[in-house]
Amino acid sequence: MPFVQRRYAHYFIAVLAGLFFALLGRFTFASELLNQGGGLLMLGFLVLIPLGLGAVTEHFAPSADVKGFAFLWRPWLASILFMVTAFVFHLEGFICLLIISPLYVVMSLLGAAFYRILTRNRPGPNGRRSTFIVAGFALLPFVAAPLESQFAAPDDFRRVENTILINAPVEAVWHNIIRVPAISAQDLGPSLIDKIGFPRPVEATLSFEGVGGVRHATFERGVEFIETVDVWEPLRRISFSIVPNTATIPPTTFDEHVTVGGRFFDVLRGTYELQPAGPGQTRLILYSQQRLSTRLNPYAGLWTDYVMSEIQARILRVVAKRSEAEAAQATSASGIVSGRH
């Protein structure tokens, strides 16, 4: 039996054509020529290449296969095959591929649909019109790239906020936020961000209490942030600037496009606020400010907001658990003393 049966050969060629086009786009946009303009985070690569992938895949598909929406599986398969190839050959990190994969799948499907609409009367590779149309889809990313590279990516300053209600007095909560002793994986519990490769928080130290104090917030795999306190309101609020300690972060921890403190993303500030919420209760609020500098900030922000919110929520749960345990222990000890008297 031949490797690919003859009746499926056209489908095989179509998917491989889409894969080849995506790989060509990947190497072109990752080149030094376009890297300064944004490289793989340019709209040409994130939007126009998958559009072209869909059109190219559809162009090489059998012209007779025009029934319904069944044609959509080809660009979908070519997009997934591109992601798998990029991961297997270490062309991109898993986190980056996960982020761009929904965009690639959707845009490639649109590319295939647009190609179908524009060549409705002459589908397939035989018509001159369809050849011109697929050439337009294929050339557009590379023609537009030099123009796009002349414009800087906009900065988007985003705030992510998490809140938790803790059954412990303000004093117990304050004690557990200014310094955070070692956190185990059991303390944090499972999370999707662990599975996709983000390092877990480990601990936070403080050089001294007050404005000017320096916190060292460490994460797994050598990730460390230097946090300088510039607002110190005991039992009410602590706020600090955040600078990644690039000397301790191995280059293999993050992909270039998601490196904290890089040209595309940075975490700038963090703040804890404590609010009395009733007898023996405290409302703890943690919010941070990030800088996002991509050409698709609204889309990229969905991912960065999710990751930051998940990190903050896990830290708040650890603080809550420890504060409530200390409060319960203090109440128990107080009851024993009272009983003795």
From TrEMBL:
What name does the UniProt record give this protein? Answer: SRPBCC family protein
**Superkingdom of origin:** Bacteria
Instruction: Tell whether Membrane is among the UniProt keywords.
Output: yes
The record lists the membrane-crossing segments as 40-61, 73-91, 97-118, 130-147
Q: Which UniProt keywords apply?
A: Membrane, Transmembrane, Transmembrane helix
